[in-house]
Amino acid sequence: MATTHRPATDSGPPRPAPAGRRSGPAAPPPSWRSRLHRLDLKASPYAYIAPFFLCFAAFGLFPLLWTGWLSLHRVDLLDPGVMEWRGLGNYTRLWGTEQFRTALLNTFTIGVLSTVPQLLMALGLAHLLNYRLRGRGFLRVAVLAPYATSIAAATLVFVQLFNPDYGLVNWLLSLVGVGRTDWYADTWPAQIAVATIVTWRWTGYNALIYLAAMQAVPKDLYEAASLDGASRWQQFTRITVPSIRPTILFTVIVSTIGATQLFGEPLLFGGGVGVSGGSAHQFQTLSLYMYELGWPSRQLGRASAVAWTMLLILLLIGAVQLLLARRGRAGQGR
Amino acid sequence: MTTTLEPTPTARPSTAGRAPRRLAGALRAVRRRLRPGAGEQDKAGPLTYAVLVAAAVLSLFPLYWTFVAASSTGERVAQAPPPLLPGGSLWTNITTAWEQADLGRALLNSTVVAGCVALSTVAFSTLAGFAFAKLAFRGRGALLTVVVATMTIPPQLSVIPLYRIITDLGWGNQLKAVVLPSLVAAFGVFFMRQYLAEALPVELIEAARVDGAHSLRIVWHVVLPVARPAMAVLGMLVFVQSWNDFFWPFVVLTQQNPTVQVALSAIGGGSAYEVNQAVIMTGALVGTLPLLLLFAVLGRHIVGGITAGAVKS
Fold it and tell me: Is B215 in contact with A41 (Cβ distance < 8 A)?
């Protein structure tokens, strides 16, 4: 192989590359130069992809496996050389801890509260941005602006806006007759506030991703549909959404991962009580709990067990999403 | 729903008919590229504008309010109807914030970190992306799948051993501890691969090969010129991401040598009830301003980059 440029048979998840590639027959005469040439052809691709795989192996995969190993031990942050075997003890102890179960539930509820509205709004926004618009460039940049804001800056601003006593949100709500809401202390308001920060930062970004996918939908599909008398809403639900289904799946997976590792927002939203995620852990996420166990409490083994639990949960969610996507596609008859 | 209020689409008889739809789609895609803006659907109605303007306001308001609070006194921020217009204390607040957290150092650190990460990610991603897009080698499909799959592993899961590695190396609280794990990113590899798969004609590479160019020469003289726009966009995206990264810098750096985000966490986190609220907002403003300026200047390109990268995902 490898002496000719074979047409790139696209494997893997990305879309098939555009048609129009041709393979070039280039069989060189055998000489030392051509041998060198062949070596270059064979080896250089691996040299080019090596940095990524080396970096991933060193800073991603190896630590991940090590985390798994640590999770089976009792390890102190300040004395990490001493490891005491505990088997699955860390895991069983976790599941018996109420704070862990709270954090797990919080991660789930905050995840749903942020991901679902965020993606739905992004879908709607993308649809609207897809019209022929005046000021299109400005609107797109404006919607994306929160993406430029950091977690820290955004959270600090929203802490002020959600302040129960003088925050803008409560003031606006009081104008429409809603009484004082304690966005820090009460469970649901606090979780909604944290989810709002996430939603604010990522809605525009997702909208642009959807917009890009929508622009690749062939226009004659819409023309045919409108000839058949389909309303705009029907066109949106029957053509736009199914056409960009892979993109939607992509954003769902990415936001799920993002929601699972939520850390900075609840930490900084908690102000002085940061790591505990509120006075009653009402918005402590799994990441925050992991950090609290690993650093302030110095129990690296238990923190590792939380990390691996997160991994297992992610794998589970991923499998469910892929199954649903596959079933959805089968239902579409594609 | 807003869509029903739009003017009815101008119904043109479909010229494509049942002809090979793929070809028609491909041609259309090409034409769309040639005429920017031609891909949009019908003209927007007033309700569409209303919703979009509302979304823009909601997106921009917290940023505007950061400026309002940062330019106010602490008392003014804590009034019952909060202020909606800027005050006159911006400079005082900036000097105070600068004293409370080492913002100058933080800004410098963040620039260094984000710059290094962006440069190295772009360089390595371009090489790997080129290999995945245009070079034939055994295991390419499987390896590309691995690259994409690694995007789904949250970096936090590796943090505990990584922290140990870094402290064992004696790199705790040093910038290289932040840079090193981010030297290359799966997203970047995938992004460049998608771009080069479309933008780089195989014929160019073959012609260079026939002329006897070895593969690094090809990268330098053929791939780089084609890849430059995508490299610029990727560089900006990675810079933004690295600038805003929170978790790992928070774990590995201290307030003696912080990035902007770590410095902000100290201003806002430690003692929220003692520190002047206006000063906190000033910190947030200073930390965000560089990126907002970047967006004001290059926003369209960043938007274009995100959409270009997503079309093919």
Answer: yes
Nearest alpha-carbon partner for B60 in A112, A146, A159? A146
Query: What's chain B's Rg over C-alpha atoms?
Result: 25
Tell me whether residues A130 and B210 touch, CB distance under 8 A: no
**What residue in B sits closest to A311 (Cα-Cα)?**
B157
For B82, phi then psi, to 5°, come to -65, 155
CA distance A331 to chain B (A): 22
**What's the confidence (pLDDT) of residue A273?**
65
More confident residue, B295 or A312: A312
Task: Tell me the CA distances in angstroms from B93 to A150, B162, B278, one per residue in order.
Answer: 20, 37, 7
Tell me which chain A residue has its CA closest to the CA of residue B131: A45
Q: What residues of chain A lie within 8 A of the CB of B52, using their CB?
A: 125, 128-129, 133, 139
**Within 10 Å of residue B157's Cβ, how many Cβ atoms?**
26
Give CA–CA dist A333/A331, Å, rounded.
Answer: 5
* Chain A residues touching residue B273 (CB < 8 angstroms): 271-272
| A223 to B14: CB separation less than 8 angstroms, yes or no | yes
Task: Tell me which amino acid residue B221 is.
Answer: H
Model confidence at A287, pLDDT cuts 50, 70, 90, reads very high
Inspect the interface and report whether the beta carbons of B159 and A307 lie closer than 8 Å: yes
The pTM for the full model equals: 0.82
Q: Do the chains contact at B42 and A233, CB–CB below 8 Å? A: no
Report the gap between the CA of A45 and the closest CA in chain B (Å).
5
Q: What mean pLDDT is predicted for residues A235-253?
A: 89
